[in-house]
Design brief:
Length: about 325
């Protein structure tokens, strides 16, 4: 079987810790090269992760004709530039979330990839885990009745790392960009629709470049249903999702990131009691790579098309505007 040859543009922690091992464990892909701002750093990462080639610039990696697809884990403000440059070089692209700094940039990236006829996907790995298909099946079965609300959070405390790129406002820093996008995308996915309006309130910290270190929000969906969420980079760690229905509820204890030794399982509670739903033990990063690989190799449609990323950015734009201007924002 032909394998997709991946190049990695940047040596971010998420790439080294999760995405590169995921591609290496996938059925359809192999990592053949990595580029960093210095050749020394690229060579060090290549050695650590058994990657054959190292480049001291992103341009050199894109010029390598043996590379089919690239993964971009660069700081948010660089996503647009390097996605478009990769597309023009004929490379398929997996870009780390959030896709861009706003929906306009995201649309430009999608258009560039369409014009270059390359596959383009946003790296929301959790969506490829089979448990979300299983959760949707429970919802569709009617077991928990009609949905009345979705509640989700994603927080961690990294406030002591003052040099972190997440605290650079002009680079797309802040908790909404970094982790708020997860509850937003999850609600859109589970409800199968787009929210009509957003209201968000945030803690903007002068100690951290005036980015939102904590944010809480409500997204208004049809039929009076709402996503109530919070996200933060200066709070105790949580990443939990709950779907509340008229007859029961679904709890997902590790909704987005599953730590070592934690369970991927979820729980369904109704009048009959509470049951644990066991899900397969899988590498969601490998499944993400395989979905892209199958799209490239056989034309199988992506489960989440590129335009979905633009829609998610529209919601994020509304949340950021709401938090800055202290008002409800209608989403067109």
């Amino acid at each position: 079987m032909k394998k997709i040859r991946w190049g990695i543009i940047g040596s971010a922690g998420i790439a080294k810790r999760s995405v590169i091992p995921g591609i290496q464990q996938s059925e359809t892909g192999e990592v053949v090269a990595i580029a960093s701002r210095t050749l020394e750093k690229a060579q060090q990462t290549a050695k650590e992760l058994s990657i054959p080639k190292a480049y001291g610039s992103y341009e050199d990696l894109l010029a390598d004709p043996s590379i089919d697809s690239v993964y971009i884990p660069l700081p948010n403000h660089l996503h647009k530039e390097w996605t478009i440059r990769a597309a023009k070089a004929g490379k398929h692209v997996l870009c780390e979330k959030p896709l861009a700094l706003n929906a306009v940039e995201a649309q430009e990236m999608v258009q560039a990839c369409e014009e270059a006829n390359v596959v383009f996907a946003e790296a929301f790995m959790y969506r490829y885990h089979p448990r979300y298909k299983m959760i949707k099946e429970v919802i569709d079965s009617g077991e928990i009745g009609e949905i009345r609300g979705i509640y989700a959070n994603f927080t961690f405390n990294n406030a002591g790392d003052s040099s972190n790129v997440r605290y650079k406002k002009e680079w797309g820093g802040g908790s909404l960009y970094d982790v708020g996008v997860y509850p937003i995308s999850a609600a859109r996915m589970l409800l199968g629709e787009e929210p009509q309006a957003a209201t968000a309130h945030a803690l903007f910290s002068e100690q951290h470049g005036d980015v939102d270190m904590m944010a809480s929000g409500i997204l208004e969906f049809n039929h009076g249903v709402a996503l109530t969420f919070d996200c933060g980079m200066w709070a105790a760690g949580r990443n939990v999702l709950e779907v509340l229905g008229t007859e029961g509820r679904i709890e997902v204890p590790s909704a987005f990131v599953v730590e070592l030794n934690e369970k991927d399982n979820f729980y369904v509670s109704t009048r009959e009691g509470k049951r644990e739903v066991e899900v397969p033990k899988v590498n969601q990063y490998a499944l993400q790579a395989d979905a892209i690989g199958r799209r490239i190799l056989s034309g199988e449609p992506l489960p989440f098309p590129p335009q979905d990323a633009v829609l998610n950015m529209k919601v994020l734009d509304a949340c950021l505007t709401s938090a800055r201007e202290h008002r409800r924002v209608v989403i067109e």
